[in-house]
Design goal:
The longest helix is centred in the middle third of the chain and has 22 residues, at 61-82. The chain is mainly α. The protein has helices spanning 3-6, 8-26, 30-35, 39-45, 50-53, 61-82, 84-97, 100-106, 118-131, 147-164, 171-188, 192-200, and strands spanning 136-139, 143-146. It has one domain: Rhomboid-like fold. It has a two-stranded antiparallel ribbon with strand order 1-2. The protein is globular, with a radius of gyration of 17 Å. A hairpin with a 3-residue loop joins strand 1 (136-139) and strand 2 (143-146).
């Protein structure tokens, strides 16, 4: 079955995210100011909508391409497993929850801003792993690891990178987005726990 037919929510989110990012790149850069997650303003002006709108924008081409390629490899598969409505809940739930720690940590930091779909994409990756734990995940098509091992190493790396904090990537959002994806999936599909354990062991 064609991916776009079997996964309509995924194709719609993909198109909207790419479209919004390109629009901000080339047509209206004020969109960054309007839609970006700015914890200082989020707390004081109740800009709740930026939990979602910031996930539709990306800082540059590489940021956009990496996130959308990863989205493509996992989101379409996940939607076929859980259905469109549940996929939307998992994706945007992970997107919103991934930013909570960032908001708390930077609520008094006027200079801090965050954008990108990385938290939501991490949630989609980890949700998918619950359904296909025996699959192997390849990094840059070179290093391939069993999905559960990849998941553990990914979380450990996020923790390490967040503490190191020598780049402008919000590694905390990756970590919390991944956990949010797992938690939301388990709430929606509690039977996935014994299935995952049975597949792994």
């Amino acid at each position: 079955m064609n991916d776009s037919i079997a996964s309509p929510a995924s194709i719609l989110i993909l198109v909207i995210t790419i479209g919004a990012s390109l629009w901000a790149f080339y047509r209206d850069q004020t969109l960054f100011r309007k839609w970006i997650l700015h914890p200082y303003s989020f707390v004081r002006q109740r800009r709740w909508f930026t939990l979602i709108t910031s996930g539709l924008l990306h800082g540059d081409w590489m940021h956009l391409i990496f996130n959308m390629l990863t989205f493509y490899f996992f989101a379409f598969t996940l939607e076929r497993f859980v259905g469109s409505i549940n996929f939307i809940i998992i994706y945007f739930g992970s997107m919103a929850l991934s930013s909570i720690s960032t908001i708390i940590k930077n609520r008094d930091n006027y200079e801090y801003r965050s954008l990108g779909a990385s938290g939501a994409v991490s949630g989609a990756i980890f949700s998918t792993i619950l359904f296909v734990p025996t699959e192997r995940i390849c990094l840059y098509y070179v290093i391939c690891l069993p999905a559960p091992i990849f998941a553990v190493l990914y979380l450990l790396y996020c923790i390490w990178a967040a503490k190191k904090s020598q780049d402008f990537i919000n590694h905390e959002a990756h970590f919390w987005g991944a956990l949010a994806g797992v938690i939301i999936t388990i709430i929606l599909f509690p039977e996935v726990i014994p299935y995952f354990i049975g597949q792994v062991f």
